[in-house]
Amino acid sequence: MSAPADAYARFVRQGPGAALAQRLGAPRPAALRRWAPDQELLTGPLLVLGAAAAPLAADVARWLTAAGADVVESPGDDRLGAVVLDASAVRTTADLASLREPLAPAFRRLAPNGRVLVLGGLPGQTATVEAAAVQQALEGLVRTLGKEARAGATANLLRVGEGAGEALRGPLEFLASARSAFVSGQVLEVGTARAGADGPAAAGPRTAVVTGAAQGIGAAIAEVLARSGTHVVCVDLAAQGEQLARVANRVGGSALHLDITADTAPAALAEHLLRRHGGVDVVVHNAGITRDRSFVNLDDAGWSSVLEVNLRAPLRLTDGLLTREGALRPRARVVQLSSINGIAGAKGQANYAASKAGVIGMVRALDARLAPTGGGANAVAPGFVETAMTARMPLLPREVGRRASSLQQGGLPVDVAEAVAFLAGPAAAGVGGQVLRVCGQNLLGA
Amino acid sequence: MSVPPAAPPVVPPAAGSRLPRRAAVLGGNRTPFARAGRAYAQASARDLLTAALDGLVARYGLAGEQLGEVVAGAVLQHSKDLNLTREAVLSTALSPRTPTYDVAQACGTGLEAAVLLANKIALGQVESGIAGGTDSASDAPIAVDDGLRRVLLALSRARTPQQRLAALARLRPGHLRPSTPRVTEPRTGLSMGEHAARTAAQWGVSREAQDLLALESHRHLAEAYERGFFDDLLTPYLGLRRDDNLRPDTSLEKLAKLPPVFGRDGEVPATMTAGNSTPLTDGAAVVLLASDEWAAEHRLDVLAHLVDAQTAAVDHVRAGEGLLTAPVFAVPELLRRNGWTLDDLDLVEIHEAFASTVLATTAPWEDEEFCRTRLGLDGALGTIDRKKLNVAGSSLATGHPFAATGARILATTATLLAERGGGRALISICAAGGQGVAALVEAP
User: Fold this and answer.
1) Which residues of B are known catalytic residues?
2) Which of A68, A212, A372, A391 would staple A286 via disulfide (CB 3.0–4.6 Å)?
3) Which of A223, A249, A250, A258 is most worth mutating to test chain B (most B CB atoms within 10 A of its CB)?
4) Is residue B389 situated within a structural domain?
5) Do A98 and A180 reside in the same domain of the chain?
């Protein structure tokens, strides 16, 4: 269990602070359970529920048991570590009506940091108008459960395509585990695993490159990727070299000084990855800048410098890797950092929001291009995350940013990194062109 | 000019290099260099070496790697820094099972360390290693007065109160004056600058020529930074991103205004100023060497090979030879042994202890009589094309943390060779005590 990062959250955790907050009805953010070595998958037993035919329930129980979950038939005395509801075959309003009865008592019995996972079908694969409506209803249900869940518990919806099979296993485990601590109220689509995804790379990526790796979220991404033995090429500006070296050495990776906006950067990166590592399995575009100004006051430099770093550089770097034979290894995966401000827009951030929305378009198109090779592209959209950047925000917006989410706290860089590592690995073989928000179910752009 | 009386060649002739293989230079790293008392005022020589090593480890992905050895040294060394290199390595991300040793050859330390390591690689005793040097003039050791030291030692040996009193009775107020290390030659009492001024006067090296060389050093270094040449050779440290001695905007006019600081009591007008001499500097530099096989296994490019090296020493005490002129003798022998001439060289790196040192190193090679009588050649060795000399700047611009300079120059030279896609280079470094070390480097 890791303590919330901010002073207010620590104050209301226990003692007089807790009593005061309870009296005032003020938010009391929970200490989120995060990944730790040799950790149990869940904090309590798993209950698998089914609605209608529930074709996935048996597999789910089997997979999660293999991952260490203790499956129970009904909510007993112990608080539940997770509830999985297979609603993938729900087609009628009657099916929908039948959900409440088993789910409500289970939800009530959910342990702190518990997990609600609802499995739905893919919207495009429904035969009737009613089925489409009923499947869409699941989103409203799950998002509400995310808001009503207490003590660090989360609720998420996995939309499972027909024939997804084993491809569901990775996303299911990720969302059930402590690695998804700051992911709640989200919808993730899982399709069939791409060709060759269960080949040699199923063991995990050998080499990854992370831009902007010297600090904050980039450094955390390098660390989480390295946890499973991936060599991480940590990229940042030469001026950041001191911190970059520290990160690279800590994760047993290597440091590359590169200005990603330089004309020569795409060729230089492709050359480096090819020569030094024989190509790369994972590309994480994390480097980004902000130059906040209201749109009318934004000058050309402020507008274009943000687009240059946040949008044009990842486009050019990716292009450089795609066009250099062998630079991207088969089944290569690209993960792009977006932002909830890219989805919702943000006052004073026209440049930033445009760039972060732009990259969502990029991963969708790129995913189609990578899919035939067995690879894929996805984006992660962080909400309020405790970094050096948010530490510089004025007090009031910072406090609002922290509390304006269902988990009532800012995330940590590692929360974003866990999502990136999930999307970068073989567990996400059936996930492509998606945007996964890591925002504690922030109210923005929900 | 006056030529000193004929003497046998300083360097005994040797057979051509017969090393079983050549060590490869794979890359380097250094801290930016800082003028003493500035950015690194609080950092020790060991801190600096650790930082330089960690930057190299990060660049080449060597965290946890057990290398054949790490060899480095410092000129200004604290007695507490016994095992300096070993202690530095234990602070880095390298495997603690990497053995180390310290070496010292004054300003030749860094290059000599690389030569020693290269020889072990050539002989197959190790496959990989790091060589380098570090110095902090800010963190220089301060010793107690020799008299006080004797009193304290006597005190520690005293057994009875009487003996203790007797020892203490020998204390004198003058003993409390700390003795700081000075860049003074123990056998002549002259500073290195004074020595260099004498050599400059002997060879008639002009103030203008020295200032021009200093200007070119600053210009070349500034250009190299501008084109990102140092992105793969340097890792910022303690907020410093570039050598703080660099003056990109200096000019001949500005340099000409500086008052002379050395050779002011000589027979000819003094020419050496703060602008054409190196300042006291803090910094560390390291270079990664390995066999070609090790490089291939680790997927690292070979930038260049260290072909051969030669040290030499002059008699600056009795024969009055120029203190910093040993390379004048080392280089011709090194070239001869390898069958190279000055014309074969694409790059020449001559350490700029002072601008006059560089000019007083090349001038004798152009002097027919000197080359015949002192170097045993048939005629002049030749002229160094200035377009090939110190093309990415040298010590006048970067500063000169004594032991770090050799590794800085070797890494820079190897990178320059790789950049131009081939060629041969000469490195020459003068050192205190009338010594010098030279090396030949060739692109693979």
Assistant:
1) 107, 400, 430
2) A212
3) A249
4) yes
5) yes
pTM of the model: 0.89
- For B101, the enclosing helix (H) or strand (E) is strand B100-102
Q: Do B228 and A231 touch (CB under 8 A)?
A: no
The chain A residues in contact with chain B (CB within 8 A) are: 231, 234, 238-242, 244-246, 248-259, 262, 275-278
Same domain membership, residue A165 and residue A88? yes
Measure the CA–CA gap between B375 and B11, rounded to whole angstroms.
9
Q: Is the pLDDT of residue A158 over 60?
A: yes
Tell whether B34 is covered by a domain.
Answer: no
A37: pLDDT confidence band, cut at 50, 70 and 90?
A: very high
Q: What is the pLDDT of residues A408-438, one digit of tens each?
A: 899 999 999 999 999 999 999 999 999 999 9
pLDDT one-digit tens code per residue, B64-121:
999 999 999 999 887 778 899 999 999 999 999 999 999 999 999 999 999 999 999 9
A133 with A241, same domain: the answer is no
Sequence-distant (≥ 6) Cβ neighbours of residue B366 within 8 angstroms: B380, B381, B382, B383
Q: Would you say residue A24 lies in a domain?
A: no
Tokens in use for B328? 């004048």
**CATH number of residue B407's parent domain:** 3.40.47.10
Residue span of the structural domain in which B357 resides: 192-227+307-442
Question: In the predicted model, what is the mean pLDDT of chain A?
Answer: 90
Shared domain for A313 and A294, answered yes or no, is: yes
Phi and psi based region of residue A29 (left: phi greater than 0; alpha: psi -120 to 50; beta: remaining): beta
Residues A149, A268, single domain; the answer is no
Instruction: Enumerate residues 6+ apart whose C-beta is below 8 A from A127.
Output: A91
CB contact under 8 A, A238 and B236: yes
At A349, give phi and psi (nearest 5°): -130, 40
- Closest residue in B to A240 (Cα) is B236
Residues A84 and A207 occupy one common structural domain:
no
Residue of A231, A241, A246 with shortest CB distance to B61 = A231
Give B39→chain A minimum CA distance, Å.
Answer: 14
The count of domains in chain A is 2
Say what the ipTM of the complex is. 0.86
Name the CA radius of gyration of chain B, rounded. Answer: 22
CATH number at residue A42: 3.40.50.720
The residue range of the domain holding A264 is: 200-438
Nearest to A185 by CA among A98, A115, A81: A115
Least CB–CB distance from A249: residue in B93, B231, B237: B93
Residue B331 lies in a domain: yes
Nearest CA in chain A to B31: A242
Query: What residue in A sits closest to B232 (Cα-Cα)?
Result: A257
Q: Which residues of A touch B27 (CB under 8 A)?
A: none
How many other β-carbons are positioned within 10 Å of the β-carbon of residue A62? 13
CB contact set of A383 (below 8 Å; sequence gap of 6+): A182, A340, A401, A405, A410, A411, A437, A438, A439, A440, A442, A444
- Binned at pLDDT 50, 70 and 90, residue A9 comes out as confident
Taking a C-beta distance cutoff of 8 angstroms, is the pair A415, A181 a contact? Answer: yes
Q: Is residue A9, in this structure, part of any structural domain at all?
A: no
Answer yes or no: do A237 and A385 share one domain: yes
Residues A232 and A168 in one domain: no
Chain A, chain B: beta-carbon pairs less than 8 Å apart: 70
Boundary-marking domain end, from A163, A190, A217: A190
